[in-house]
Automatic annotation (TrEMBL):
rRNA processing found in the keyword field: no
Keyword Cytoplasm: yes
Listed name of the protein: Proline--tRNA ligase
GO biological process: prolyl-tRNA aminoacylation
Originating gene: proS
HAMAP family the record matches: Pro_tRNA_synth_type1
Functional description taken from the UniProt entry: Catalyzes the attachment of proline to tRNA(Pro) in a two-step reaction: proline is first activated by ATP to form Pro-AMP and then transferred to the acceptor end of tRNA(Pro). As ProRS can inadvertently accommodate and process non-cognate amino acids such as alanine and cysteine, to avoid such errors it has two additional distinct editing activities against alanine. One activity is designated as 'pretransfer' editing and involves the tRNA(Pro)-independent hydrolysis of activated Ala-AMP.
Chemical reaction(s) catalysed: tRNA(Pro) + L-proline + ATP = L-prolyl-tRNA(Pro) + AMP + diphosphate
GO molecular function annotations of the record: aminoacyl-tRNA deacylase activity; ATP binding; catalytic activity, acting on a protein; proline-tRNA ligase activity; transferase activity
Main subcellular localisation: cytoplasm
InterPro entries given in the database record: aa-tRNA-synt_IIb, aa-tRNA-synth_II, aa-tRNA-synth_II/BPL/LPL, Anticodon-bd, Anticodon-bd_dom_sf, Pro-tRNA-ligase_IIa, Pro-tRNA-synth_IIa_bac-type, Pro-tRNA-Synthase_IIa_type1
Name of the top EC class for this enzyme: ligase
Domain notes: Consists of three domains: the N-terminal catalytic domain, the editing domain and the C-terminal anticodon-binding domain.
Gene3D superfamilies to which the protein is assigned, alphabetical: Anticodon-binding domain (3.40.50.800), Bira Bifunctional Protein, Domain 2 (3.30.930.10), YbaK/aminoacyl-tRNA synthetase-associated domain (3.90.960.10)
């Protein structure tokens, strides 16, 4: 590709509104341009990187038995009504009407569409298991789109859905996707951790997030320095199993909590009964109280939440965000529509523990004066304090470290939630009708590109890993006014193309300094400079990652590149 008429509008200056490196560099190197808040266009280089990442994803998904489909971005609202999510999803779901005044939504995710597809066309266990995936544009009206394509309102996602006939089948499908994700992110040369992500199933492995380690990550993860243990910090404390301590019978005062009418009431209840500073919100969800606790002395991302099932609540940050996720005003108490996945886990041994107050394993009740250790024991922990850096890992191997992470992928066992809601059944071996057992698996493709830039750059620009670089080589004729250089550049361009290299050829009549700066900024793995020694048949290779420069005779060039 000739750079002369290639759309790579590089910028010298750091765009004022770009806070993080990847956003700055993606703008500066001309990968993306903002069209509206949280809505981006990909310029040719950006599109090429997207495709590279997509191809890695495709190859691993296909290898794992996935079948690629393409579903509509625009979906009838009735489908979401049927699944019960139309109200639940809240303002993040973009809604529109057609000319006949019929309601539609822009797909934020595709469980409804895929479940009805499979419902209508897969009837027998003989066809199962099945894994369908797509790479497609998603829409979420994020309240705070930021960091460029890292959190945008229109973005590209790979979403896959598995359909099984048994729980064991789902376990295998899930494991296959988990492994595929590990391959995908490794091939993108990302430093990542797969973390347990849901406080709901205590000790369970029903959902994992793939977190790219990065200071600008919005999540905090706790991981062991000596084992695979890793968990989103919100759930790390509840990862360990809570057990009723055997020694003492519970001598606790059980108190009613559902009648708490205002947040102030609830907060004061907790304040009185706990020696922590706690801000709390009580939401009534499907007529059940959901308690959300925010420890005042912790950073936004270290907010602690009761073991409320469902990622929406687990991911809470501030009370305002909580309220938004739950689709109500801050401070509002009463029946509200929230995601189905948000509900109190009434049947766990401990619904919520802080020093002094804990769930009573009974709807609408709490214990006060809880003495952790006396009344409840946690396997792996001496007491019930929140997980800290330096704690022993719950699996007994190594010590807990904290890191910030960017969620690039998420795998989730759905079970029969959508198949039941939408009537997706199959006939089993005995001719009995059963609900399909589902899993869903997402990767933020555009976010992954940003995460790669976030981890692969230096002060001069992007340093693309070869696997996702938009071109293999940057061939630069340093002075196009020099006929010798110009001719050798042209000749090498043809040769390298014939050798199946994808080459960006800087044939622009620019000054050497500008060309080198741009070349470093674009960050292709290898630069081939055709300069003063062209007459002797010598070119200069620069390895972008190490900065190493090597003079090579053109007769050795192809061998050197191998
Ligand atoms: P987040 O916690 O960052 O809001 P999410 O948990 O809401 O993400 P999922 O529903 O799990 O996202 O979607 C699957 C993947 O899609 C995420 O792991 C992430 O990589 C990507 N993704 C989600 N929201 C966005 C967004 N606004 N912009 C870019 N990518 C996104
Ligand atoms: Mg989200
Ligand atoms: Mg998330
Ligand atoms: Mg997620």
């Amino acid at each position: 590709m000739r750079q002369r008429n290639y759309l790579t509008p590089t910028l010298r200056d750091v765009p004022a509104d770009a806070e993080i490196k990847s956003h700055q560099l993606m703008l500066r190197s001309g990968l993306i341009r903002q069209t509206a808040s949280g809505i981006y266009s990909y310029l040719p280089l950006g599109k090429k990187v997207l495709r590279k990442v997509e191809e890695i994803i495709r190859s691993e998904m296909d290898e794992a038995g996935g079948q690629e489909v393409l579903m509509p971005a625009i979906q009838p609202a009735e489908l979401w009504e049927e699944s019960g999510r139309l109200g639940d999803y809240g303002p993040e779901l973009m809604r529109l009407k057609d000319r006949h005044d019929r309601d539609f939504v822009l797909g934020a995710t595709h469980e409804e569409v895929i479940t009805t597809l499979v419902r209508d066309d897969v009837k027998s266990y003989k066809k199962l298991p099945m894994n369908l995936y797509q790479i497609q544009t998603k829409y979420r009206d994020e309240r705070r789109p930021r960091f460029g394509v890292l959190r945008s309102r229109e973005f590209i996602m790979k979403d896959a859905y598995s359909f099984d006939t048994s729980q064991e089948g789902l376990d295998k499908s899930y494991q296959d996707m988990y492994s595929a994700y590990q391959n995908i992110f490794s091939r993108c040369e990302l430093d990542f951790r797969a973390v347990e992500a849901d406080s709901g199933a205590i000790g369970g492995t029903d959902t994992h997030e793939f977190m790219v380690l990065s200071e600008i990550g919005e999540d905090t993860i706790a991981y062991s320095d000596q084992s695979d243990f890793a968990a989103n910090i919100e759930i790390a404390p509840v990862h360990a199993k809570y057990e009723k301590a055997s020694a003492d019978p519970l001598e606790l005062e059980k108190v009613d909590t559902p009648n708490t009418k205002t947040i102030a009431d609830l907060t004061s209840f907790l304040q009185v009964n706990s020696n922590e500073t706690i801000k709390s919100l009580l939401f009534i969800v499907n007529e059940e109280p959901v308690l959300v606790l925010v420890r005042g002395d912790h950073e936004v991302n270290e907010v602690k939440v009761g073991n409320v099932l469902g990622k929406a609540v687990v991911e809470l940050a501030t009370p305002e965000q909580t309220a938004r996720i739950l689709g109500c005003e801050t401070g509002y108490i009463g029946p509200i529509d929230v995601p189905n996945s948000v509900k109190i886990i009434a049947d766990h041994a401990v619904e919520f523990v802080t020093n002094g107050v804990c769930g009573a394993n009974e709807k609408d009740k709490h214990y006060k004066n809880v003495n952790p250790g006396r009344d409840f024991a946690v396997a792996g922990y001496e007491d019930l304090r929140l997980i800290q850096e330096g704690d022993p890992s719950p699996d007994g191997k190594g010590t807990i470290q904290f890191a910030k992470g960017i969620e690039v992928g998420h795998v989730f066992k759905l079970g029969t939630k959508y198949s039941e809601a939408l009537g997706a059944t199959f006939l089993d071996e005995n001719g009995k009708t059963q609900s399909l057992i589902m899993g869903c698996y997402g990767i933020g493709v555009s976010r992954t590109v940003a995460a790669i830039v976030e981890q692969h750059h230096d002060e001069n620009g992007i340093v693309w890993p070869a696997s996702v670089a938009p071109f293999d080589l940057h061939l630069v004729t340093i002075n196009v006014k020099d006929e010798g250089q110009r001719n050798l550049g042209e000749e090498l361009y043809q040769t390298l193309k014939q050798e199946r290299y994808d080459v960006l050829f800087d044939d622009r009549p620019e000054r050497a300094g500008v060309k080198f700066k741009d070349s470093d900024l674009l960050g292709l793995p290898i630069r081939i400079g055709v300069g003063k020694k062209a007459a002797e048949g010598i070119v200069e290779l620069k390895i972008r990652k190490t900065g190493e420069m090597i003079e090579v005779h053109i007769s050795d060039l192809l061998d050197t590149l191998k």
